[in-house]
From TrEMBL, chains A, B:
Stated name of the protein: NtaA/DmoA family FMN-dependent monooxygenase
Keywords, alphabetical: Flavoprotein, FMN, Monooxygenase, Oxidoreductase
Source organism of this protein record: Klenkia terrae
Luciferase-like domain location: 31-382
GO molecular function, one term: monooxygenase activity
EC number: 1.14.-.-
Database matches in SUPFAM superfamilies: Bacterial luciferase-like (SSF51679)
Amino acid sequence: MPDQLLLAIQIANGYGPQPGSWRMPGVDPRSYTDMDVFARYAQAAERGKIQLVFLADTPALENDISRAVPNHSIDPLVVLTTMARATQRIGLVATASTTLNEPYTIARQFKALDVASHGRAGWNAVPTSLPAAAANYGIALPPRAQKYQRVHEVVQVVQALWGSWERDAWVLDAERRQFADTDKIRPVGLQGEHVAARGPLPIPPSEQGQPVVFQAGGGGNGLEVAARYADGVYANPFSIAEGRAHRDALRAAAVAVGRDPDEVKLFAGFMPSIAGSRREALDRRRRLDEVVDLDQRVGYLGSMLGLRLEPAQLDEPLTADQLAAARPSPGDPRAPHALQVAREGWTLRDVLAHGVIDYHPVVPGTAEDVADHMQAWFEAGACDGFSLAIDVYADGIDAFVDQVVPILQRRGLFHLDYEGPTLRENLGVPDQYGLDPRLTA
Amino acid sequence: MPDQLLLAIQIANGYGPQPGSWRMPGVDPRSYTDMDVFARYAQAAERGKIQLVFLADTPALENDISRAVPNHSIDPLVVLTTMARATQRIGLVATASTTLNEPYTIARQFKALDVASHGRAGWNAVPTSLPAAAANYGIALPPRAQKYQRVHEVVQVVQALWGSWERDAWVLDAERRQFADTDKIRPVGLQGEHVAARGPLPIPPSEQGQPVVFQAGGGGNGLEVAARYADGVYANPFSIAEGRAHRDALRAAAVAVGRDPDEVKLFAGFMPSIAGSRREALDRRRRLDEVVDLDQRVGYLGSMLGLRLEPAQLDEPLTADQLAAARPSPGDPRAPHALQVAREGWTLRDVLAHGVIDYHPVVPGTAEDVADHMQAWFEAGACDGFSLAIDVYADGIDAFVDQVVPILQRRGLFHLDYEGPTLRENLGVPDQYGLDPRLTA
């Protein structure tokens, strides 16, 4: 097991992952378009020595924003370039779809971000699964197998383009009047079934050579992509057992293609809500829930617990009879935790405020509670680190940085400072330039 | 004729448009990848109240960089976002190919830049004519007619996406718990022969509504694109007569589609080399020419003048016999000016240092010389302004801003300050949001 955990922080829309984050105290409701806000959050995360900022992305208006914040940023490249200008060490990672983008565009934009940030960029290489995003590009989603075939092609073309300048091609010898050694800048000339590019890409190596590749989702297909190309994987386990199973499978898949399993780091999604006490944290989350349809959520909670629940019971706990009859639904991995919370006697409103049906594990509580959860997962081998989805960025990032990070550091679980200027150094992943030679041998 | 001229400044590769700019005194040879340098140049241009920075672009390594700088930047969006963070007023415009990009990507990235910069973005909408760029996208260039058909489709889809949120759709009413009025955010559902997008684009209007559209090149096809969609046109006339002809044609084409011709501004490409005297300016350009194959240029100069010239004559002027025999080639619009310079008695090396075979008119001389040239062109109706390709950015931008701008201002030819915070205000072009209703009526 690695000595210390790694931290990624999601700063997508400018508000936070909770739908009601835009209405919270201290939040500028126009944060979505205000790059000063994004710069400030990146600086706060860097103060906490967090390894990287991660912007998930889908090129579409994915969710209903009549009451809720949009899921994603206005544009990942604009946001990450803004953050690059405001920080010195933190890594800058975003999703770009392999289904909807051509590899030359991805290669150029992420490599430009990488040299602009002096070696801090990363690319989360994922296919698109949202039909609305495909429709924005005038196409229907291809079948899954074809989409994943294209992922492999796109990543290989992108990495080949990244390596199309030899490391010492940029000569800059003023006396000999030589700007570059063009014998060392060569086309890649790759032609796949789905994509192709001649190259070269006219960008020299960055301080880390080229951007780090990440992967997310996709089951067995995704695992194969991660094993072959990724140094970081964003995963969504709901329990330690799920996290261990995913991480073990990932490491085995990496070994199967000849890699050292320690090269591939699994980041588990995690949503802390930090306050002075669990009660205060629940009140914070109840305020966030004001834009949410709780009646519908009560119904869903019932289905998770094998009960028929009505909105009228929102401010009551489960009865003894209900608790006796409850059976966690085998179809929802969050169900056992929901039942455990319900057994503690909270009202249904508070059970929901615990985030039991959120899309990552939630810890509402003190900084110690949050640190305890992270330590337990990490020491059980459920992850190499966490991808933090902090409820409200405006005060939540500071709370994490100022309260949780020092606890993790005191416990020896988190680094005291950045290891170096590049993302590769700070993740502890190996140098890479161009295609991985192990994959082309 | 408009009262005052407009200025765009090209800051493409970080060095300057001259191949040898990377070797000049005070130039950091690593400027190509150093965003601090780009930020500084944008700030200098803003000090001079220049209306906009323009980054031409082709997604390929277009030129031989063994001795010369690359033609373009590492990535226009990364560079312009960097500049947006470093400035408050100057406009930020770049080329994005309508041949190689999907409209959703262009719409999103330029609109994101537009809101991030508080209404200062512009998009130069041009098809790609370089086969190597198409090969980077795995395609062959389509026939010209088809490429221009696609330009129309892409611009219309992009502008429709830009307008897919009604101006007041972003409600942000915390009390009523309403983030956005989703009845006012609608798909665009456009389907052309070449491109399509469903939308909506999840970005609210910027302070100027949406980015300004620019156009460049393309002859009659390009003129039609400019007349229908553009507020600014980048042109390359070599003489006042050529500039007037282009501008008159552009204005007539705008009128023909029902627009006010003053909505479309023609920027003439112009390369000043500013020094204490013409001799000093020529020496500056001779140093720039050290990386250039002058033997080959002498031969080309001869073909422009209807003479057979040899490299041995490089440091001699034309003889009386040669001058008597010289006939400007009708195939090169730069030839009359080349002959005029040669008649002044300069050596061939100095004739070439005058930039007579450069791709824009060159004025090597004092700030007064440069201002005189600009005044003459502007007052003759050859342009609405200039797109400055200043020989070496490192000291040339400051020289232009500190020496030429005050002369133009004293002569009443250039504004004393920005008219407002948006690019539209500073260009004096009308508000636009979504598709131009005159085109869809």
